[in-house]
Write a structure and sequence with these properties.
266 residues, alpha+beta, Diaminopimelate Epimerase, Chain A, domain 1, 2 domains, 18-stranded mixed sheet, 6 helices, 18 strands, 20% helix
């Protein structure tokens, strides 16, 4: 039996931008080892696996795998999953996608050409910079914080963000999923920019990351005294997100484009 698989570029309105994710809508649960093998074979930052729950309107179980690990929260592959469900008719275009995950219930709703995700906020707290972190990044931080998942490093400006060239081999040793770097944006109409590095999870630089914005939103709300933002992740591929704080939740807006459809034979 073959397994359909869809390659989607998330947080972009054009192919070959944003963050690529593979999406498998499964007819039944598969074992974790098989899912990890598929994610390694796809070699994208995340591959998503969905199984419909049996009850009416109960949604889908959703898991995310990098090439090396299962992760607790992933924005772009959730965006891609909702996009695939609507595009293939698994869900009606007006229906809200409901995902049961290791981070609780997540939802996605269509907003014209955009998709809006409802995710838990993961605010940071200020910490002393871990020994060697600034050296590994080659920066002078203005601020260092730590969220549930990652370190957050604020730099002086967008030029500093673009210029960072981490030592990925040494960055793997830090006790966190990854490191996000951020500053105010230099581009009109954009509030802040960021980049994200997670070599310990098999991703040297992630192109466009939803889950980091669950931390970046609360951080920039404190800095800019506002609750809604336009954000750019300035990786080589780039990505655009709308970020809105809503209590202890963060609403993440993005677009998605299907690039490839295929079948797994294994």
């Amino acid at each position: 039996m073959t397994q359909p698989i869809v390659h989607v570029d998330a947080f972009t309105d054009a192919p070959f931008g944003g963050n690529p994710a593979a999406v498998c809508v499964l007819s039944a649960e598969r074992d974790e080892r098989w899912m990890q093998h598929v994610a390694r074979e796809m070699n994208l930052s995340e591959t998503a696996f969905l199984v419909a729950r049996r009850g009416r309107d109960e949604g889908f179980d959703l898991r995310w795998f990098t090439p090396t690990h299962e992760v607790d929260l992933c924005g772009h592959a959730t965006l891609a999953s909702a996009h695939v469900l609507w595009e293939t008719g698994e869900l009606a275009s007006s229906a809200v996608a409901r995902f049961h995950t290791r981070s609780g219930l997540l939802t996605a709703a269509r907003q014209d050409a955009w998709i809006e995700l409802d995710f838990p906020a993961t605010p940071d707290a200020a910490v002393e910079a871990p020994a060697g972190l600034a050296e590994v990044l080659g920066v002078q931080p203005l601020y260092v914080g730590q969220s549930r998942f990652d370190y957050l490093v604020e730099l002086a400006d967008e030029a500093a963000i673009r210029g960072v060239r981490p030592d990925f081999a040494r960055l793997r040793a830090f006790a966190a999923r990854g490191v996000m770097i951020t500053s105010r944006a230099g581009e009109p109409g954009v509030d802040f920019v960021s980049r994200y590095f997670a070599p310990a999870f098999g991703i040297d630089e992630d192109p466009a990351t939803g889950s980091t914005h669950c931390c970046l939103g609360p951080f920039w709300s404190r800095r800019l005294n506002k609750r809604s933002f336009v954000a750019r992740q300035i990786s080589e591929r780039g990505g655009t997100l709308k970020v809105t704080l809503d209590g202890d939740r963060v609403r993440l807006g993005g677009q998605a484009v299907t690039v490839l459809r295929g079948e797994l034979l294994a």
